[in-house]
Automatic annotation (TrEMBL):
The keyword Coiled coil does not apply. This is Transcriptional regulator. Keywords: DNA-binding, Transcription, Transcription regulation. The keyword Transcription regulation applies. GO terms for molecular function: DNA binding; DNA-binding transcription factor activity. Residues 1-25 are annotated as: Disordered. It comes from Micromonospora endolithica. SUPFAM superfamilies: Winged helix' DNA-binding domain. Residues 300-397 form the HTH arsR-type domain. Signal peptide: none annotated. Pfam families: HTH_20.
Length: 405
């Protein structure tokens, strides 16, 4: 899951806020002021802190191989609720680009409004400044405890050892601008953590809370559908229908996610968490003493009519929306046929297919020298062709490598 921050200060306490210039961001005791988006790279003056890791443009899709033992497979289960702070962390990251926004257009609009002005503007800017733009989040921001409320989640994060905060923030930060606020956050500075906690609390209340019942409904629908698959097809049937980026090769669960590796289970089981806020790819958290947590993206429950061509175009871009509709009409198209149908070059069609596949909206299968593309159940759901519960159906071809054209 994902979460972050700390308990907000009492009303009478001075408020820790950020300055307007991210290059000189610091925590001061004064009235709130908005924090603008930081520069994406290290500044030319070479102001580098000890923070290091992958830059955003190097946060590429990778393959994680998780070997599950009998003790883990005997304890495969679903999370019984969404984690408010965890959902805030993932949503604030996922809604920064169109691939994450596709699953939750209503939330994407609300997040855009929050960023544009109002009470949540400073909270949005703080989260965008302190969290990586995409990819893996620091694990301490995804605590297992504190799922009862935002306050409980922030307290769980506040209890994290400072050495762990520094290690994980260092591993999550990339070649981004080193600012005083980022350094203090990495050092587990109490005021920086308080500022972060206030931002989480405000952003949740503004963006997620009005849609919390819908998010909870999406989670419950997916759990219900998965229980049916488990009853009819066993674990293989369950895993086959989770997401195109998840593949079961006994005893290994392969997950296309933001980091690579070969791991073994913890012996405490596998905890599954479907949510529209996971982002374009599944997320995996492995922590000793706890079950392996696998968070994977699902659509919001479908209500009302399918999105119009104009609305879908604004979300995905006109060309990619057109590609989805062409696939819906044709069933399957090669990359060449897709380029002809969309009126774009072959290389451009390949790029669009890669983006749509990464978002879980299409699946691709190589046959000889050609690659065929088809809608996933999620893609069909986005076009209004299937109800939300049908998205549980497994993709016949399974997940596809990210390098396919």
């Amino acid at each position: 899951m994902g979460s972050a921050g700390v308990r907000p200060r009492a009303p009478h306490a001075p408020t820790a806020m950020a300055t307007d210039n991210p290059a000189s961001t610091t925590v001061v005791r004064r009235t709130p002021a908005p924090l603008v988006d930081p520069a994406p790279l290290w500044n030319p003056a070479g102001d580098r802190s000890s923070l290091s890791v992958q830059a955003e443009d190097r946060q590429s899709v990778a393959m994680l191989r998780l070997e599950l033992g009998s003790a883990d497979l005997c304890q495969v289960r679903f999370a019984d609720r969404l984690h408010p702070v965890g959902m805030t962390m993932m949503a604030s990251q996922a809604l920064r680009d169109s691939t994450g926004s596709v699953l939750v257009p209503s939330l994407a609009e609300r997040a855009a409004s929050a960023r544009a002005g109002g009470e949540a503007r400073a909270a949005t800017a703080t989260l965008r400044h302190l969290l990586p733009a995409r990819g893996r989040l620091p694990d301490f921001l995804t605590p297992f405890g504190g799922s009862e409320s935002v306050t409980a989640g922030l307290e769980a994060i506040r209890a994290t050892a400072s050495w762990r905060i520094r290690a994980e923030v260092t591993a999550a930060y990339a070649d981004v601008a080193a600012t005083p606020l980022r350094r203090r956050f990495a050092a587990a500075d109490p005021e920086a953590l308080d500022l972060f906690g206030q931002a989480v609390d405000t952003w949740f209340g503004t963006v997620l809370k009005p849609h919390w019942s819908e998010l909870t409904s999406a989670h419950r629908q997916q759990v219900t559908g998965a229980a049916q698959r488990l009853a009819l097809g066993g674990l293989a049937g369950l895993f086959a229908g989770l997401h195109p980026a998840i593949r079961w090769r006994p005893p290994v669960l392969e997950v296309r996610t933001w980091w690579s590796g070969e791991l073994t289970g913890t012996g405490h089981g596998l905890l599954l968490l479907p949510t529209p806020l996971a982002g374009p790819l599944p997320r995996v958290l492995v922590e000793p003493g706890h079950p392996v947590l696998l968070v994977y993206p699902v659509p919001m429950p479908h209500h009302g009519a399918a999105p119009t061509a104009g609305a879908l175009g604004r979300l995905l871009g006109v060309t990619r929306a057109g590609v989805l509709r062409r696939l819906a009409e044709s069933g399957e198209l090669s990359t060449t046929a897709l380029a002809d149908a969309a009126g774009v070059s072959l290389s451009s069609a390949s790029e669009h297919a890669t983006a749509l596949r990464a978002a879980g909206l299409i699946t691709s299968d190589r046959r000889g020298g050609a690659v065929g593309h088809r809608l996933t159940p999620l893609g069909a759901h986005l076009l209004g062709q299937v109800p939300a519960t049908a998205v549980d159906a497994p993709s016949p071809a399974g997940p596809r490598p990210a390098h396919l054209p």
